[in-house]
Amino acid sequence: MNLLTDFREPYDQYLRFLLTKPWERISTKGPDKREQFRTMESMGLRTVPHGDLMDLWYGPVVEYTDLSAHCGEGKVFHPKNPKICGKYGSEYQYHTESIRYLFIGSYVAKIRYEKSVTDWRSNYNPVSITTIDAWEGNVNHGPVLCAVDMVEGLACDYNVAPGMPDDLPWTWQEIAEEISRFLA
C-alpha cells in the first residue's frame, strides 16, 4: 500500500490506489483545533462559538480532549456544559446534515453529509454523501487540498491534507474529477 493514513474519508482511501510512491497522511500532523478556528475566521467565515468551556453557554458543548486529533476522535460531547476551566471546546449545534466545501487546487465541491440522529459528530458515519455542486474559481483557501465543514451555516471544522506531496502525478482538475466520480 502506498498510503499510510488514519483518515476515514472515502476519497482518501480512493487516492491510495492512484499513488505511485509512499505517502504518509496522519491526522494529528495538521493544525490543532485553535489553529483551525483562527484559519476559518481569517477566511471570513462565521464559526460556532468556541473557547474555554467556562466562557461558553450552559447548553450542549463539544470538549476537545486532544486538540490535534481529527476524524471524530479527541472529542467528548456534553449535553450540558460542565463549565470546566482551562478546557477548550465549542458550542454544539444540533443537526442531521452538514455541508463540506472541499477545495482541490482551484476547484471547489459542495458536499452534503446526512447523518444518523444517534451520532453527534458532523461527518462521522454518514448515512449518505451527495455532491451538490462543483466549480472552478480563484479561491484563496490555503493548502491545495482542504475542506471546511459547516453546520447550520457556521464553520465547525477545517480539514487539511497533511503530508500531501507536491509532485502528484495528476493535475488538480483530474483529482477533482476522480473524487466527483467516486462520490457520485
Summarize the structure in words.
- The protein has a single domain (3-48, 94-183), classed as D-amino Acid Aminotransferase, Chain A, domain 1, CATH 3.30.470.
- The two termini are 25 Å apart.
- Strand 7 and strand 8 (107-115) form a beta hairpin.
- 28% of the residues are buried.
- The chain has helices spanning 10-15, 33-42, 172-183, and strands at residues 3-5, 23-25, 50-52, 61-64, 75-78, 88-91, 97-104, 107-115, 126-136, 145-151, 154-160.
- The chain is of the alpha+beta class and 184 residues long.
Topology:
Blueprint: E1 3-5, H1 10-15, E2 23-25, H2 33-42, E3 50-52, E4 61-64, E5 75-78, E6 88-91, E7 97-104, E8 107-115, E9 126-136, E10 145-151, E11 154-160, H3 172-183
Parallel strand pairs: 1-2
Antiparallel strand pairs: 3-6, 4-5, 4-6, 7-8, 7-10, 8-9, 10-11
List keywords for this structure.
184 residues, alpha+beta, five-stranded antiparallel sheet
Quick overview:
The mean pLDDT is 79.
> What overall form do the CA principal axes indicate?
globular
Spatial order of the strands forming the largest sheet: 9-8-7-10-11
Q: How is the main sheet built? A: 5 strands, antiparallel
**The CATH topology is what?**
D-amino Acid Aminotransferase, Chain A, domain 1
Number of helices: 3
> How many whole angstroms does the radius of gyration measure?
17 Å
Summarize the amount of helix as a percent range.
10-25%
Can you write the helix and strand succession as a string?
EHEHEEEEEEEEEH
Tell me what portion of residues adopts beta-strand conformation: 25-35%
Kindly report the average pLDDT value: 79
